[in-house]
Amino acid sequence: MSIIAVGDIHGNIRALDDLLEKISREVSNGDTLVFLGDYIDRGPDVRECIERIIELKASSSFSIVTLLGNHEDWMLKSYRDHTAHSWIVGMESFDTIASYSQKAVQVLKREIERGGYSMILGKSDLPYEVFFNALPSSHLRFFESLVRYHQADGVLCVHGGLDTSVDQLDSQHPDAFLWGCDEFPGGYSGEDYVVYGHHSNAVLDAERWPYPNLKTNRTCGIDTICHGVLTAIRFPDRHVFQSRRFEV
Q1: How far apart are CA 55 and CA 32, in angstroms?
Q2: Using CA atoms, how far apart are residues 237 and 117, in angstroms rounded to an integer?
Q3: Which residues have C-beta within 8 Å of that of residue 59, sequence separation ≥ 6?
Q4: Which domain, by its residues, includes 59?
Q5: Which of 3, 6, 65, 119 is a Cys-bridge partner for 115, taking CB atoms 3.0 to 4.6 Å apart?
Q6: Residue 141 forms part of a structural domain
Q7: What is the mean pLDDT of each run of 10 residues along the chain (248 residues)?
């Protein structure tokens, strides 16, 4: 049985489809495919990416685990609290919004202009429902079902990392799995392999092709999508799968 971890997607459907086609040739029953989060923002095809993963979960004969990324976390905070604006201010969220509703883009941009500094200071709300009402119910359920980590067979899958000062996994602050800490990944010294995304710390060759950041302390960074390439890694053999380059 293998664990295959897939890095940040950020709305790049061509890279996702290309990578899944390559993985499908080798994945089998008993394997687990783990998506590390950050499906949304920065790319134009968020809706298609989410739909593809939902369809895969429904039809595949192998297990699929979907993790929560910091982008989805901040989006859900806006869903639950319409005065929480970190997602729309700092996450290039309009790529996501536009993939579901151009009307929502127009309404929210207009209200942001009206709100001004009071919105940034968290003193006014925004009509986020115009966006969330445009989400298919299956997509909202998908986002609300995302988990913070997956651990099995000596491999820990997280989005952003760990707090390296905390030894026990169940004692970690929930946000540590999304963001890591200043000492991660270099300060990690555990026995499990830790595969993570988020950090855009790919190793570039002379032709600027991005490779995973594989360190001797068993940390494996696979966030390469900012270079147009989606990366996955399989355990225990650490075989790397990569899409072709699809810039967005």
Answers
A1: 16
A2: 52
A3: none
A4: 3-69+146-242
A5: 119
A6: no
A7: 98 98 95 98 98 97 98 98 93 97 97 76 86 98 98 98 96 98 97 97 97 98 98 98 96
